[in-house]
Amino acid sequence: MKQFRATVRASGVVVTTVVYAENTTFATKILQALFGAGNVISIPAEI
Fold first, then answer.
1. pTM (two decimals)
2. Whole domain around residue 19: which residue ranges?
3. How many domains does the chain have?
């Protein structure tokens, strides 16, 4: 598993979060499931 950092909107506040996934596509899907597709502001970047 790799770590990915992304910026999302949670309850109207913009925050940076970290998720663990196999690749960028899976990281994006996880973030969309957690925060909603319209609330993922940046593409997850591996850290």
1. 0.87
2. 2-46
3. 1
